[in-house]
Amino acid sequence: QAQLVESGGGLVQAGGSLRLSCAASGRTFVGVALAWFRQAPGKEREFVAAISWSGGSILHAPSVKGRFTISRDNAKNTVYLQMNSLKPEDTAVYYCAADVTWGTVVADDSAYDYWGQGTQVTVSS
Q1: Residues with Cβ < 8 Å from 91, sequence gap 6 or more?
Q2: Given pLDDT bands bounded at 50, 70 and 90, which one contains residue 102?
Q3: Can you give the pLDDT at residue 12?
Q4: Is 68 helix (H, G, I), strand (E, B) or coil?
């Protein structure tokens, strides 16, 4: 069983930055795609970004492109989300997810097999 543990959330003013981390454990992550999703109160879960095992395939949602950057360190089994120029509408619980079945970089949350517990990001105006 894989375990994913997010960290790095918090309260930040609009225009500020945060870096989220997600540490993966419990199985091999060779070939596994990792992603970030978010869910704001009263809204559906939303895709943020995803990255392949090699890092050669990366996808960012249009709403965060140019502001957020996903990356990974395979030696540490960790995926990161660098968030710059944060806006109040970025306020949400951010979740890390792993696609161990196909290893594909997709925005569809049904493709992901394992999920973390989430970390809260709050952006004040």
Answers
A1: 40, 121, 122, 123
A2: confident
A3: 98
A4: strand
